[in-house]
Design goal:
The chain is an alpha+beta fold. 34% of the residues lie in helices and 27% in strands.
C-alpha cells in the first residue's frame, strides 16, 4: 500500500471480537475498555503499518473524527477517496459500511484537492483585480485546473502576470477553506445578491434534495461542492499557463467565456518538471509540425475533418500498407462497407439508443432516416450473416479501414487527437468461447509488434461493465473473468489498470495506453470482448455436433484512430519520422547547374529502387540554405553532388542530424537505404 494513503474499511462485530485480541490491532489507539466498545463497529481506519483505528460515528465530519482519534494523524490527512471520488475533511461519514482511503498532501490523489483549491484562489484574484467579472466553473483537471469567466474585455498575458502575483498574495495570507451548507432558498438569495448568473443557473439545475454548499476563503465565497485543502497555503506551487475561449457549458449557442488554465503541484521540483515537459510538448506539437511539414490541413469549413496533404497521405498510406501486409499473414480478410446506413441497422446494434448523440444523422423524409457510421461493428455482423458458417470457419477475421464520423462538440476538437472524421484499423473476429484466449494471445502479439516498430512503450487497462449496458450480468461476469485471466497471463496480476465502469455498452474491453517520448500517456488501440451484438444480429454457426451456436465477437483496433496515431507519432518523433514512413526519404542537392544532369540520373536510379526522393535545384539559393531547409523539413538523407561526385559516380551523404557520412558509391547508398526501409530502422 502507498505510504501516503490510509484505508477506511468495514469490519463486522464478529470479526472485531475475533481479532481484537491480536497484538497491534489497536496498539496505542486502544484507549477504551472492552465493556465500552460499541456493539457495532461501523468502520476502522487501516494505517499503512497495519494498525487500525475504529470509527463508529456515522454523520460526523471526517476531520472531526480524525482529530478525536489521533491529532497527529489529523494533521497529515487532507481528505479521502470514496468509491473513486475524492472528498475533503468536511465529508460526513456514511451510515453504511464502505471503504474510504485517507489522503495526505504527498499522495497522488491530493492533486485533485489542491488543484481545485487553486481554481478558487485564481477566481479570488480575478475578482480582486476585475470586480465586474462573472464566475462560471472552475474544476481541477488531470494536468491542473481552470476557471471560466464572463468578462467584457478579454484577458491578456499581461493580465496573467498580475493575476499570478495576486494569487501568491492570497496564498501567503493563508485563508482557511470553510464549508457552508445552506438551503436552496438561502443559496438563491446569496447568488442573486452576489450578481452571479452562471452560478444561479448551476444551482437551478441541481436536483431536489441535493446538499447545497459554498466554500469561503477570506472575502471570497463560491457555490461549490468541494473538495478543498485546509487553507490557501497548502497549494503554493502553481503556474498560470494559458488563456482560451470556451462556450458556456460547451454549447456553441451560448456565450463565449474566457478560460484561464493553470497547474499546481505539491512541490517546486514537480512543477518545474511539468513546465519543461510542456515546453517540449509545444516544440513537438503535431498541429504546428503539420503546418510546417505540409502534412495535413484543418479547415473551419470542415471542423475536425482533416485534409490529408500529399506528404501526410504518404505516411498514412505507409501505415495502412504495413497493417494490410501483416494482417494478411494472419488470416484477416479485408472488407469495406457503406458510409451511411438506415437507422434500423443502428437500432439493432443498440447504437441508436446508446450512441445516437455522437452520430451524424441524415433525415431523408418523415419515414426514412440514415446515420453516418461512427464504427464498423454492425456492418461486420451483416457480412458474417451472408451465409451459413461452420465451426471450421472460426476464427473468422474481418478487417477494414473505412472512414468513420463521430459528432463531437467543437470545443473538444484538438488537431488530429480529437477529430470528427477518422480511419481506424478495425477488425471483428468471430470466435467460439473456447477460442477467446488464443485469439487474444495473437492480438496481443500483434500489439507488441506494431508498437515495437515505433519504440513505443505501452500498458494495458481493463474497462468493466458500465452503468448502461446490454445483456445480462452473468454474461458480463463471464466476459470480464476471461479478460482478467488473459491479462494475468500476459502482463501479470496487478500489473494492469482496471477502470471500473469504463467498458463499452456491449462488452468489457482492454485499452492500449501508449507512452510517448516525453512520458505522456495516450489511449490508442482497444480490444473488446462482445457477447451481445452477435446475439442481437442473430449470428449463428454450426458446431462440430451439428448444433446451432452463437459466436463471440472480438472487436479490436491496434493503431486505433489512425489520425490520432499519426498525431502522436508526429509528436513522438518531433516530425523526424523513421526512414520507411518519411514522405521524402532522400533529397538530391546539385551544387551548380552543371551537376543537374548527373543529379537527374541519381534521381531516376533512386526512384527505380523504390526510394521516395526529390531534386532540389539551385535557383539562386545557396547550398547551405538548401541543406538547412532540408533539415527543417526533417528529410532523412541529403545527397550533395559536385564535380568529384559526378566524376566518380558517388554521392556525398549528409543526415538531417547534421552528421556528414562522406562520399559513397551510389549503389552502396541505395542498398543501405533499402535495408533501412525493409528493417523499418532509423537513419
Amino acid at each position: 500500500m502507498n505510504d501516503n494513503l490510509y484505508g477506511l474499511v468495514a469490519i463486522s462485530p464478529s470479526d472485531y471480537n475475533r481479532k481484537i485480541s491480536r497484538r497491534g490491532w489497536l496498539d496505542s489507539y486502544q484507549h477504551t475498555r472492552s465493556a465500552d466498545l460499541p456493539k457495532v463497529i461501523n468502520m476502522i481506519l487501516l494505517r499503512p503499518d497495519g494498525r487500525r483505528l475504529e470509527v463508529n460515528e456515522p454523520g460526523a465530519r471526517l476531520g472531526e473524527v480524525l482529530q478525536k482519534l489521533d491529532p497527529a494523524l489529523a494533521k497529515e490527512v487532507i481528505g479521502a477517496r470514496r468509491n473513486g471520488e475524492v472528498v475533503d475533511l468536511y465529508f460526513k461519514l456514511p451510515e453504511a459500511q464502505e471503504k474510504l482511503e485517507l489522503i495526505t498532501l504527498e499522495s497522488n490523489d491530493a492533486k485533485w484537492l489542491y488543484r481545485h483549491s487553486m481554481s478558487h484562489v485564481l477566481a479570488q484574484a480575478v475578482k480582486r483585480l476585475f470586480p465586474g467579472v462573472k464566475l462560471a466553473i472552475g474544476p481541477a483537471i488531470e494536468e491542473g485546473f481552470y476557471y471560466d469567466f464572463d468578462t467584457e474585455k478579454p484577458f491578456t498575458h499581461d493580465d496573467l502576470e498580475a493575476i499570478s502575483k495576486e494569487m501568491k498574495k492570497i496564498i501567503k495570507e493563508g485563508f482557511r477553506f470553510e464549508r457552508q451548507e445552506v438551503s436552496r432558498q438561502e443559496a438563491e438569495k446569496m447568488l442573486k445578491e452576489m450578481g452571479e448568473p452562471y452560478k444561479l443557473e448551476i444551482l437551478n439545475d441541481l436536483p431536489e434534495g441535493e446538499e447545497i454548499s459554498f466554500y469561503k476563503d477570506g472575502e471570497f465565497i463560491d457555490l461549490c461542492r468541494g473538495p478543498h485543502v485546509r487553507n490557501t497555503k497548502a497549494a503554493k506551487h502553481f503556474k498560470l499557463l494559458d488563456i482560451a475561449g470556451a462556450y458556456w457549458r460547451g454549447d456553441e449557442s451560448r456565450k463565449m467565456l474566457q478560460r484561464i488554465y493553470g497547474t499546481a503541484f505539491h512541490n517546486e521540483e514537480d512543477l518545474e518538471k511539468f513546465i519543461k515537459q510542456r515546453e517540449e510538448a509545444t516544440r513537438r506539437d503535431h498541429r504546428r509540425l503539420g503546418r510546417e511539414l505540409e502534412l495535413f490541413h484543418l479547415d473551419p469549413t470542415a471542423p475536425g475533418m482533416p485534409y490529408w496533404l500529399p506528404k501526410g497521405l504518404t505516411i498514412l498510406n505507409e501505415l495502412i500498407s504495413y497493417w494490410r501486409r501483416e494482417h494478411d499473414k494472419r488470416g484477416y480478410q479485408e472488407i469495406a462497407s457503406p458510409l451511411i446506413n438506415h437507422k434500423s441497422l443502428w437500432e439493432t446494434s443498440g447504437h441508436w439508443e446508446y450512441y445516437k448523440d455522437n452520430m451524424f444523422i441524415i433525415p431523408i423524409d418523415e419515414h426514412t432516416t440514415y446515420g453516418v457510421k461512427p464504427m464498423n461493428c454492425p456492418n461486420a455482423m451483416v457480412v458474417f450473416n451472408l451465409k451459413t458458417r461452420s465451426y471450421r470457419d472460426l476464427p473468422f477475421r474481418l478487417s477494414d479501414c473505412d472512414v468513420l464520423h463521430r459528432h463531437e462538440r467543437s470545443g473538444t476538437l484538438h488537431g488530429l487527437l480529437r477529430v470528427q472524421k477518422f480511419q481506424q484499423d478495425d477488425a471483428h473476429i468471430f470466435v467460439t468461447e473456447e477460442q477467446i484466449e488464443s485469439e487474444y494471445d495473437q492480438i496481443l502479439d500483434i500489439t507488441r509488434q506494431f508498437y515495437g516498430i515505433f519504440n513505443l512503450k505501452y500498458s494495458l487497462r481493463l474497462g468493466t461493465r458500465p452503468k448502461d449496458f446490454l445483456g445480462d450480468v452473468e454474461t458480463w461476469d463471464l466476459a470480464e473473468a476471461a479478460l482478467k485471466r488473459i491479462l494475468d497471463k500476459h502482463v501479470g496480476s496487478g500489473k494492469y489498470q482496471i477502470a471500473e465502469g469504463d467498458g463499452t455498452f456491449y462488452g468489457p474491453k482492454v485499452d492500449i495506453l501508449m507512452e510517448d517520448a516525453i512520458g505522456r500517456s495516450w489511449q490508442m488501440g482497444t480490444i473488446q470482448l462482445d457477447f451481445q451484438l452477435p446475439r442481437r444480429f442473430d449470428c449463428k454457426y454450426i458446431d462440430e455436433d451439428n448444433q446451432v451456436k452463437t459466436p463471440v465477437v472480438v472487436h479490436r483496433a491496434i493503431y486505433g484512430s489512425l489520425e490520432r496515431f499519426f498525431g502522436i507519432i508526429t509528436e513522438h518523433y518531433a516530425g523526424a519520422f523513421p526512414v520507411w514512413i518519411s514522405p521524402i526519404q532522400v533529397l538530391i542537392l546539385p551544387i551548380a547547374d552543371r551537376h543537374v544532369p548527373y543529379a537527374e540520373q541519381v534521381l531516376a536510379k533512386l526512384k527505380e529502387a523504390g526510394v521516395r526522393c526529390e531534386l532540389s535545384y539551385a535557383r539562386h539559393k545557396t547550398l547551405s540554405y538548401r541543406v538547412r531547409d532540408a533539415q527543417v523539413q526533417k528529410i532523412p538523407y541529403m545527397l550533395v553532388l559536385g564535380d568529384r561526385e559526378q566524376e566518380n559516380g558517388e554521392v556525398a551523404v549528409r543526415l538531417r542530424t547534421e552528421q556528414d557520412l562522406g562520399a559513397q558509391k551510389l549503389e552502396a547508398f541505395i542498398a543501405m537505404v533499402q535495408e533501412k526501409i525493409a528493417k523499418q530502422e532509423e537513419i
